[in-house]
Amino acid sequence: TQLLEQSPQFLSIQEGENLTVYCNSSSVFSSLQWYRQEPGEGPVLLVTVVTGGEVKKLKRLTFQFGDARKDSSLHITAAQPGDTGLYLCAGAGVSTSYGKLTFGQGTILTVHP
Amino acid sequence: ETGVTQTPRHLVMGMTNKKSLKCEQHLGHNAMYWYKQSAKKPLELMFVYSLEERVENNSVPSRFSPECPNSSHLFLHLHTLQPEDSALYLCASSQDLLAGGGETQYFGPGTRLLVL
Fold first, then answer.
1. What is the CA radius of gyration of chain A?
2. Is the CB of B92 inside 8 Å of chain A's CB atoms?
3. Distance CA B9, CA B20 (A)
4. Burial level of B83, CB count in 10 A (0-12/13-18/19+)?
5. Residue B11 has what pLDDT?
6. pLDDT the model gives residue B101
7. Is B110 on the interface with A (CB under 8 A)?
8. Helix H or strand E segment including B114
9. CA B55, B56, B60, B64 torsion: positive or negative?
């Protein structure tokens, strides 16, 4: 069974601070995705990383896939209240025939003005 | 209307009731999914459909019964549920079955279910 450990589970910071969310596993994933979910809505895909060591940037968000494709991180620079939400990582297994995603338990981020 | 829609958005039911959740995708996708999201637990994949055929039943109790009459619609029929089944039920779709290469899944807003 593939598991994804996400940390921290909760993060409460002031506007302008930087933060990093981690997603770790003992399993190798063929790709890893990051989602953001706001209250009353479903998760929305932010990014997909596929290659070990890959770094992707989305405005103030930087995503990295570990060299061994077992872990990933999401770094937010100068957080804003609009970044508040639940952040989820999800991995697609290397041996998956239909692409089942394994989700982490999520990080609830609150950015205070 | 575009994207993935789910109805109802909220549902309260007793343990002896029978109800159905509906999902509709307007994206022309071939694969659809049901997930359960409970507090402090990772999203749990329940069912996967590809071209209206069920390809995965992830050890879900029989009190949950999915139905996919066509590639645009997905239902989850509920009967004799337990209080621990209270959760947010999310529907998602993707162009084709995820192949490990990072196909994008589009989620609906979910149905918040409370079983009394």
1. 14
2. yes
3. 12
4. exposed
5. 96
6. 57
7. yes
8. strand B111-115
9. negative
Q: What pLDDT sits at residue A79?
A: 97
What is residue B47's predicted lDDT score, i.e. its pLDDT? 92
pLDDT < 50 stretches in chain A: none
Q: Which of A73, A75, A61 is nearest to A25 (CA)?
A: A73
Cis? peptide before B8, omega within 30° of 0: yes
Q: Which residues of chain B have pLDDT under 50?
A: none
A 10 A CB-CB count for A29 gives 31
Min CA distance, A84 vs chain B (Å)?
Answer: 17
Could you give the dihedral angle defined by the CA atoms of residues B74, B28, B48 and A52, in that order, rounded to the nearest 10 degrees?
-150
Give the count of Cβ contacts less than 8 A between chain A and B: 74
- pLDDT for res A106: 95
Nearest to A93 among B48, B100, B108 (CB): B100
Q: How far apart are CA A74 and CA B115, in angstroms?
A: 36
Q: What is the pLDDT of residue A60?
A: 97
pLDDT of residue A93: 74
Q: Which two tokens stand for residue A34?
A: 């990051």
**In terms of DSSP bridges, do strands B106-107 and B73-79 run parallel, antiparallel, or are they unpaired?**
unpaired
Of B43, B102, B107, nearest to A92 by CB-CB distance is B102
